[in-house]
Amino acid sequence: MNKSEEQQIREALAQIGKTAPSGHDLPTPPAQAFARLQARITAEEEARLVNRLKKRFILPHKQFRYAFTSILVILFLGIAFSFPAVRAAASEFLGLFRVQKFAAISVSPDQLAILERIAEEGLTPGEFEIAREPQMQPVDSLAEAQTITGLEPVRTLSSLGTPDEIYVTTGGNGSLTIDLAGARAIVEAAGGDPMLLPERLDGAQVHVAVFPGVEQRWGDISLVQTPSPLVEYPDGLDPVPLGKALLQVLGMNEAEAERLATEIDWTSTLLLPVPQNTVSFSEVMVNGYSGVALFAPEGAAIMWQDSGMVYLLGGAVELNELLDLAGSLE
Amino acid sequence: MIATTSNDNLLLERISQGDMASFETLFHTHYDRVYGLVYRLVGNRAEAEDVTQEVFLKLYHQAFTKRRFAKQQTHNVSAWLYRVATNMAYNAIRSRKRRWQRNTVLVIDPIERKSVSEEVEKREEETAVRAALARLKPRQAQLLILRQMGFSYAECATACDIAPGSVGTLLARAAKAFAKAYQQELAQKHQSARYAQNQHPESRELEEKK
Questions:
Q1: Residue A290 lies in a domain
Q2: Which residue has the higher pLDDT, A156 or B4?
Q3: Would you say residue A1 lies in a domain?
Q4: Residue of B60, B87, B172 lying closest to A9 (CB–CB)
């Protein structure tokens, strides 16, 4: 290090020293601060216990929760970087995204660990605001489910007879206000090229709405029916570099991400990041519609879209059995 | 100055067995310094305390709920803490910027009893320094602040999880980036002042009468 560098460091440190806390800016004594922290921890633990009890006794079906939560999470994660850019006829200023197709993307355990670390360390792509959280409740019949959700019709698997359990979920909506610096920091930390995210992304708002849905359960088999989630995003963004950034975040190399980003129709394709070590996938035709099949040690699931409605059918059974069951949907 | 990694590791080992007292010791060891780092970035006591609480709440979840520290043999918890603190302080700054709030609350310090103009000037300088820090890469700002807080090169290396031999080079680079960002801040401030004077010539007349 030369003298001018040493001098520059000294000057920088002297300037930064001006921001040190003094007088009334000194912190609360550690013992008091720790007491405050303990109170928060206790409150959170109590809330978690109540939630666990609720899940255990009121909302016992894990797959149902998974279906809706995963749709929300995937949408939020995916949409944060992959705004479709084609102008929708519905609005001059806003674009609209509705799920028509699915694209499963395998994510390596190493990349998942990186993404987990990024989340743990507080990097966020912007401010999330959940205006209305979807609520779930058990109902007694399909007719009641139809009345509550307004879905017409609520479809069922005729080959399995009356469902053992039926749950409905109310709709929900939220938004994400993009913070470009945060979003770029995530892309960089995940090994992607942060400059793929354009300046105009800063402050852009994305609104996500999920609609009332129904889940039916027969033993291990579960069927979820919900209208396609709707996403509104600022118009005029080029989706390819954003999609490329998203694919790089999911661990794809530059060339692979470039190729796939140009192939995907970002106005209607829902990305499903799946953990490479536990879940495999393949494309599948379900009742004449293109969908995706997911395979895990515990069983399989198929996801498809039919006339604006998204279906998820899963259970501890083989794919062929799921396809046969889907064939009895009416 | 900072607790050694081996001391922290001993505490983490006990924490992974559910020992809250060890978590409290870890909290006491790092609380002031985490607060100091966050305060230098956000410039507001209440906000700095809130962010510091969030950082330790995250540590609690990592240690007790996710049992992250039980999975590996050695950890650099100070590096984790300062990295998370820097990220969360940056989030707070961006979130505030988004809400169009000021970078620093102009509250007169009753202890120092300075004149109003001196206090305003001091706060403006602090604001410019913080704005310059916010323009840096988080890791550069973190390194500069920790060094300013009195961390040795070895401690900076531990806290920033970098090789001890590269601290000097990285500090020099960060100081250069800071100097550039600070100059940009000053230029922007002067430009805004000129614009305000053009918009409100009466303020210039008042200044001239003085």
A1: yes
A2: A156
A3: no
A4: B172
What is the separation of C-alpha A179 from the centre of its chain, rounded to a whole number of angstroms?
Answer: 18
CB contact under 8 A, B175 and A22: no
Q: Which of residues 203-232 of A touch B (CB under 8 A)?
A: 203
In chain B, how many domains are there? 1
Tell me how far CA of residue B139 lies from CA of B3, B39, B157, B161, in angstroms.
21, 16, 12, 10
Give the pLDDT confidence score for residue A87 in this predicted structure. 26
ipTM here: 0.80
In a domain, A167, yes or no: yes
Which residue in chain B is spatially nearest to A31 when comparing CA positions?
B28
CATH number (domain holding residue B106): 1.10.1740.10
Distance between CA atoms of residues B123 and B108, nearest Å: 9
Judge whether residue A295 has pLDDT over 90.
Answer: no
- One-letter identity of residue B203: S
A27 belongs to a structural domain: no
pLDDT digits (tens, 9 = 90+) for B78-131: 888 999 999 999 988 887 766 554 444 444 444 555 577 777 788 888 899 999
| Domain hosting residue A102, numbered range | 36-327
Q: Mean of the pLDDT values across residues A303-319?
A: 88
Phi-psi region of A315 (alpha: psi -120 to 50; beta: other; left: phi over 0): left
Structural domain boundaries enclosing B63: 5-209
| Cα distance between residue B207 and residue B30, in whole Å | 48
pLDDT-based confidence at A49, cuts 50/70/90? low
Nearest CA in chain A to B139: A185
